[in-house]
Amino acid sequence: DPISARRPTRPRGGPAYLPLMGNVIELENASRVYDGTPVLGPLSLAVEQGEALAVTGPSGSGKSTLLNLVAGLDKPTEGTVTVEGGRIDRLGEHALARYRRRRVGMVFQFFNLLDDLTVADNIGLPAQLAGMSKAKVKERTGDLMEALGIQRHARAYPGRLSGGERQRVAIARALINEPALLLADEPTGALDTASGHDVRELLIDLHRGGQTIIVVTHDPALAEAIATRTIHLVDGGIAVDRTVGGRR
Ligand code: ADP
Ligand code: MG
User: Fold this and answer.
1) CA-to-CA distance for 88 and 180, rounded, in angstroms?
2) Probe ligand 1: pick from 32, 65, 74, 216, max atoms within 8 Å of CB?
3) pLDDT at residue 110 greater than cutoff 50
């Protein structure tokens, strides 16, 4: 399977994370204030490589804000955000764009695909923008479509696909540049039960293959299924931080 083949292997049933590989994300006293209103933190959080972290909490508790800080889509009002040893809160526009394109893959509730590009072109676009050769883009796009079971839709436009298929396309696009982090904000929120289940299983497979994942969800069942660790936010603070080690 081309997804797991490029990931470090670990024994089946072994620990769900690789402690020796260190923290891939570190937030130190990070906070976000909008118009004078604190919506997140200050909070500190370390995420290890290979973790599958679920972020739960009621609507408005700061889940998306936290994810956006890690994605480099937003900056902390105070505190620091470090990813793979580098301070992303200090990056200038150009370096931040590069970080977002190459180190982070992001998946959203409503897919955010480009409707006038084919499935294959949607998936390949971030690689093309990152300067990957045409041949390599084609090869990786093909591998990902095959691994995610969407190859037969390669030349279709997203508007023709079901929600579950669109989310698979979005996940393939998020993975094309082999990101250190896969970040998903309510990835099953707009899906029916069956498609939601499929996407959930796909995320679990990716995590088994070694992918570090953060998934934001208000669905405790989704968190329970995917995560090796759950943080529960209330009013922008971490109310619960629970590790469910060694399940996978
Ligand atoms: P969640 O994802 O848990 O539902 P969010 O992180 O989206 O919560 O939002 C947390 C709080 O911050 C909410 O009260 C929201 O209205 C506010 N908020 C989020 N983004 C902005 C913004 N760009 N400007 C002003 N307020 C915002
Ligand atoms: Mg949200």
Assistant:
1) 14
2) 65
3) yes
**pLDDT for residue 14 is more than 60:** no
138 Cβ partners below 8 Å, 6+ apart? 124
Q: Which atom of ligand 1 is nearest to the CA of 66?
A: 6
Q: How far apart are the C-alpha atoms of 30 and 190, rounded to whole Å? A: 30
pLDDT category at 20 given cuts 50, 70, 90 is very low
**What is the number of alpha carbons within 13 Å of residue 107 lying toward its C-beta?**
33
pLDDT digits (tens, 9 = 90+) for 75-86: 999 999 999 999
Instruction: Tokens 């090796």: give the residue.
Output: 228
Prediction ipTM score: 0.97
Q: What is the DSSP letter of 120?
A: H
CA of 155 to the centre of ligand 2 (A): 32
Residues 91-107 have pLDDT tens digits of 999 999 999 999 999 99
From residue 6, alpha-carbon distances to 16, 150, 178, 211, 213 in Å are 17, 20, 9, 10, 16
The pLDDT of residue 10 is above 70: no
Residues 6 or more apart whose Cβ sits within 8 Å of residue 90: none
Extract the tokens encoding 235: 């009013």
Distance CA 203, CA 213 (A): 8
- DSSP strand pairing (212-216 vs 229-234): unpaired
